[in-house]
């Protein structure tokens, strides 16, 4: 019998790559997705990977406990991956309550559905390096204290601790992956890497002249979504649930990440980049650098794709998309 997985956030970047990985491993993949009046369900990313017909989509919302319980009853998954969230940090100051409800309380709803209906299902929570915020150690590991700097990060911290609490209180096999930034050609256009690679492609094709950014001195530990969804799956294959940092162990400024994209396209960054104060955040996370040693030691996870390879892949994908 094929194993069954239920993925919330299946229409997002990680949901799409995780679904692809699970299908390759022979899983029956179910995804929770929000219906909208404009398109039934937005399956663009699954279509990009050519797997939209292989996943089974169920209407649902993280705010709706009864729907989640019904989905758990119907699917009876062996593994539940909670990837759904309002995930854009900047929007979380504009919509702090919604972010708290979806990104924070939504975790309680999924954990409750698991506890009420199929408590032996293994659970994965998409925690975030944003929880470290104002960093308390130069390199962040599972033992580094948290200091969240946005409503998004505060909501993620709630979900993180709730996952630990349900593991300790009810014995659920609930693991939390503290994932550092990860990107891909399927990254949302509002995040800085994709904003940059899309702009570079537009400038190259004569469709735009400038790129406006905020704080380009911020540093991030960037990896590839494909590598990171593999870590999610590996976590749930462990006998004992636990929490793991997933990162590359290398940090780069937004400015240097941009240079990789501009250089690849044969463009000079200084001819096109404009700093726009409107794009700065009320509170910034200046630098993140993760230590993935525990994941390496416990289950042999290591990233395979470098930042340079990933940015080049993203620029090429945007050139292809825009040339159509
Ligand atoms: P993403 O592309 O923004 O995808 C978010 C997903 O959540 C989408 O499928 C979205 O559905 C869904 N969603 C939003 N509100 C929902 C609701 N009320 N009910 C049900 N689903 C809802 O995010 P991602 O980059 O794939 O990240 C996946 C998860 O990892 C998120 O929880 C994110 O916070 C976390 N994370 C991401 C990173 C990163 O660097 N990518 C790092 C650490 C943690 P729609 O398509 O309908 O909007
Ligand atoms: O910003 C700076 C910005 O929006 C990265 C989410 O997946 O990773 C992501 O959160 C940095 C910040 O990602 C622009 O100020 C400058 O310092 O790509 P981002 P994020 O905020 O780090 C974490 C781990 C998550 O969990 C989140 O869900 O880039 N920056 N200028 C800019 N950022 C954006 N978006 N746009 C700019 O114009």
Automatic annotation (TrEMBL):
Domain NAD(P)-binding intervals: 6-314
Family, per entry: Belongs to the NAD(P)-dependent epimerase/dehydratase family. GDP-mannose 4,6-dehydratase subfamily.
Catalytically driven reaction(s): GDP-alpha-D-mannose = GDP-4-dehydro-alpha-D-rhamnose + H2O
Species this protein is from: Phyllobacterium brassicacearum
Protein known as: GDP-mannose 4,6-dehydratase
InterPro entries reported in the protein's UniProt record: GDP_Man_deHydtase, NAD(P)-bd_dom, NAD(P)-bd_dom_sf
E.C. numbers: 4.2.1.47
SUPFAM superfamilies in the cross-refs: NAD(P)-binding Rossmann-fold domains
Required cofactor names: NADP(+)
HAMAP family (alphabetical): GDP_Man_dehydratase (MF_00955)
GO BP annotations, alphabetical order: 'de novo' GDP-L-fucose biosynthetic process
Record function comment: Catalyzes the conversion of GDP-D-mannose to GDP-4-dehydro-6-deoxy-D-mannose.
Keywords: Lyase, NADP, Nodulation
Listed CDD domains: GDP_MD_SDR_e
Gene Ontology MF term list: GDP-mannose 4,6-dehydratase activity; NADP+ binding
Membrane-spanning ranges: none
């Amino acid at each position: 019998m094929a194993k069954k997985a239920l993925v919330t956030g299946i229409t997002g970047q990680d949901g799409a790559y995780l679904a692809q990985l699970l299908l390759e491993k022979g899983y029956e993949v179910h995804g929770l997705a929000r219906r909208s009046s404009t398109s039934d369900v937005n399956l663009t990313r699954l279509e990009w990977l050519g797997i939209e017909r292989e996943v089974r989509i169920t209407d649902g919302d993280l705010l709706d406990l009864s729907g989640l319980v019904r989905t758990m009853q119907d699917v009876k998954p062996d593994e539940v991956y909670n990837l759904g969230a309002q995930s854009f940090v900047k929007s979380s100051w504009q919509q702090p309550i919604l972010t708290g409800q979806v990104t924070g309380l939504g975790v309680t709803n999924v954990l409750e559905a698991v506890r009420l209906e199929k408590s032996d299902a293994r659970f994965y929570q998409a925690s975030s390096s944003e929880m470290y915020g104002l960093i308390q150690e130069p390199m962040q590991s599972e033992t580094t204290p948290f200091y969240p700097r946005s409503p998004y990060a505060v909501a993620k911290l709630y979900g993180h601790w709730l996952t630990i609490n349900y593991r300790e209180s009810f014995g659920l096999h609930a693991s939390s992956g503290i994932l550092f930034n990860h990107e891909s050609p399927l990254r949302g256009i509002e995040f800085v890497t994709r904003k940059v690679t899309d702009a570079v492609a537009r400038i190259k094709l004569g469709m735009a002249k400038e790129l406006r950014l905020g704080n380009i001195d911020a540093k991030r530990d960037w990896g590839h979504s494909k590598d990171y969804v593999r870590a999610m799956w590996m976590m749930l294959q462990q006998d004992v649930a636990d929490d793991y940092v997933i990162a590359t162990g290398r940090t780069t400024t937004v400015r240097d990440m941009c240079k990789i994209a501009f250089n690849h396209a044969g463009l000079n960054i200084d001819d096109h980049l404009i700093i726009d104060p409107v794009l700065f955040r009320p509170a910034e996370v200046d630098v993140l650098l993760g230590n993935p040693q525990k994941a390496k030691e416990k289950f042999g996870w290591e990233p395979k794709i470098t930042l340079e390879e990933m940015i080049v892949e993203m620029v090429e994908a945007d050139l292809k998309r825009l040339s159509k």
